[in-house]
Amino acid sequence: MDGKQEDVVSLTEENNPLLRKEITKGTFICIAFVVLIAVYFGSVMGVGVMFSVIMKTAHDLLLNTCFYIMGVAVLAGAVSSVFSEFGVTALLNKLISPIMKPLFGLPGASALGAVTCFFSDNPAIVLIAKDPGYAKYFKKYQWATMINFGTTFGMGIIITGGILGIQSGKYANSVIVGLICAIIGGVVSNRLLMRKTKKIYGTEEGVSDEYLDAKTEQTPAGYRKVRDGSPFQRGLNATFDGGKAGVDLGLGIIPGILIFTTLVMMLTNGPSIVDGQAIYQGVAYEGTGLLPYLCEKISFILTPLFGFANPEVLGLPLTSLGACGASIAGAKSLADQGLLNGHDMAVYFAIAYCWAGFLSSHASMADAMKTRSILTYAMFSHFIGGLVAGLVANYAYMLIF
């Protein structure tokens, strides 16, 4: 009987890689990790203060940051939907197509993916790439790079709108420089990954049906689908539909903002200063100052590369690896404290926009496109691309301004 049970367990684990034994070594690693974080913060701040800071920081982020970003997302979603309904997105696609081949090594059709991801999120590229009518323009080695390409442009309107809304557009020049440099980083990311996909798939193989969604509704070339009704009704429906999508996106980024930003703020900020004394009061945004301390130790590397005037800024692009919305929250907080100048904002924007939460989306995108075999190299390539974006932004901003 025991032998049969072992066979069943073995067969179950083999057929379903998501199944694990109830208790594994990962259980104890998780416990050790949580205890390590709790002991570190508790030993520096005190246990009671630690919990007070966590709760109050998360509460303040929810009220003053999450809803702000949700408002941006609703407006951005409405604009995106209206643009798509009345052909503005198609026009942008036509204008951008000629530069796709020389920059990214991709056919002109890839411009549609860039524009769509800019007005939505990274995973939007999956829905487009799996459309047979879209994939026919690509060789397989080009098509496989869509996970990096889409991430380069994903969340564009959200992060752009979020930063432009800080202090009445004070950082507009930083956004322009950062946007251009982020695309340069995306070119590096895509080209690096393409070197790998050429070796794996060759340069002649097309995209076979096993990778595509044959059920996707086809639209004849040169046409677009529109809603029913008069132009006014279509515009109204597009506005509401896009706004609802913005609400969904705004709700979706709340966990990332509360979790990642709270942790990063607690690792970045120090205690409150009262009458010249550093004191922990258990208020929002207090922290241990670990990240600035570490930045000072490696400033001889970071200063030539990124030129951050304040080491606290380093936490922003690191946060964007997991949640771009959370990094916008951190940027707003630092800007309100006067710790973010135009140069640092440009460098942060370039890195954050290029990365745009790829740690939390890359794996699922590769899985959906059935390209898990290149996931590790894709993530490494995109990480390098983000660093290049920040490096270029550093010197570009100094040269221009």
TrEMBL record:
* Entry protein name: Nucleoside transporter/FeoB GTPase Gate domain-containing protein
Q: Which organism is it from?
A: Vagococcus bubulae
**Keywords (A to Z) from UniProt:** Membrane, Transmembrane, Transmembrane helix
- Give the residue spans that cross the bilayer: 26-54, 61-83, 141-165, 171-193, 249-267, 345-362, 374-397
Q: Which domain of life is it from?
A: Bacteria
